[in-house]
Design a protein that fits this description.
Layout (H helix, E strand, L loop, with lengths): L20 H11 L2 H4 L14 E5 L24 E5 L2 E10 H6 L4 H22 L31 E3 L4 H14 L7 E5 L1 H9 L5 H4 L5 H4 L4 E2 L2 E5 L5 E4 L3 E10 L3 E14 L5 E14 L5 E8 L1
Parallel strand pairs: 4-12, 5-7
Antiparallel strand pairs: 1-2, 3-11, 5-9, 6-7, 8-9, 9-12, 10-11
Helix pairs in contact: 1-4
Length: about 300
């Protein structure tokens, strides 16, 4: 439950949203990077901040040697439980004056709800991208990445990897190989790149449509699409720091959809008359959280634009 200020009572109950509140959530999902790169398998199980979703893990089935005439050992599989606490919440609260609503030639409520969804997307995406890269498996980051070979340089603190149009394709292949060494499925892989890295891909050999397997060159259609099993997403919200001799370095995340679960619900959405003036208050509460379930399926690629 969300904490209340001193002297403020706590109320609980069921809120019935207005008809346009659902539209706000749809627009939020259509614009966000998170929904594209994570799974939302447990979203329907949250109702408010403070909820805890219990996720049952598939047990490992043991494979044993067989000896003719020997007794078979019976395994009783036990599912471990991972708790997914919902601990994050963001809100908006604005007023539409009656005179403005009457005199304007545009639907203020609709336009402001669109902006609220965009601002919510930006805040949630920034928080997500600034947080999850640190949970990547130790073999999926650094100058000696690779569970089996330790042969791939994905950049390290004080020594980010220099990214150019010449080496970006090789780097993406290396990231894919790091996931391969963790036995991560090829389906559902994605990578979130800053715009400059997407530009490098378009300047690379993949600008030739025949090399990318596309019918039209990405220089003509502007679509980066898929590279080495990764669906490419671009974002201006990736975390960057000053590192490597003053260079701006970026934490790029690559992952398989099952690596992270994400859940969000507009649990409160209401409009009510203002008490101190003639106007309508509109406010909404978005309860959300995310959890890295499989660190082995998450990569932290630490680079700078060379």
């Amino acid at each position: 439950m969300i904490t209340a200020a001193a002297g403020t009572p706590q109320y609980s109950g069921i809120f019935i949203p207005e008809i346009w509140s659902g539209k706000l959530l749809v627009k939020f999902y259509a614009a966000t990077v998170i929904a594209g790169v994570t799974n939302t398998d447990y979203e329907g199980e949250i109702k408010d901040k403070g909820d805890v979703v219990k996720i049952r893990q598939v047990p490992d089935i043991q494979i044993r040697d067989y000896s003719k005439g020997g007794n078979l050992v019976i395994q009783r599989p036990e599912s471990s439980i991972v708790e997914f606490p919902i601990e994050r919440a963001k809100y908006f609260n604005f007023i539409c004056d009656d005179i403005d609503k009457h005199q304007t030639d545009i639907a203020l409520m609709d336009s402001w709800s669109i902006d609220a969804s965009e601002q919510m997307k930006i805040v949630v995406d920034e928080e997500f991208l600034a947080d999850v890269y640190a949970d990547a498996h130790s073999s999926n980051k650094g100058a000696t990445a690779g569970l089996k070979t330790a042969a791939f340089n994905l950049g390290a603190s004080a020594a980010p990897l220099a990214l150019t149009k010449t080496n970006i394709l090789d780097t993406l292949v290396d990231v894919g190989t790091v996931l391969d060494e963790q036995n991560v499925p090829s389906e559902g892989r994605s990578i979130v790149l800053p715009p400059f890295a997407c530009g490098m891909i378009k300047k690379s050999d993949l600008k030739d449509a025949s090399l990318s397997g596309d019918g039209t060159s990405m220089l003509r259609n502007g679509r980066v699409g898929q590279v080495d099993r990764f669906m490419i997403y671009h974002s201006n919200l990736l975390t960057s720091v000053s590192d490597g001799g003053g260079e701006t370095a970026w934490h790029i995340i690559a992952l398989q959809r099952n690596a992270i679960t994400f859940a969000a619900q507009m649990t409160k959405m209401e409009s009510l008359r203002a008490e101190s003036t003639f106007g309508t208050l509109v406010r909404g509460l978005n309860v959300f959280d995310y959890k890295v379930l499989k660190p082995s399926a998450l990569v932290d690629l630490y680079v700078y634009k060379a």
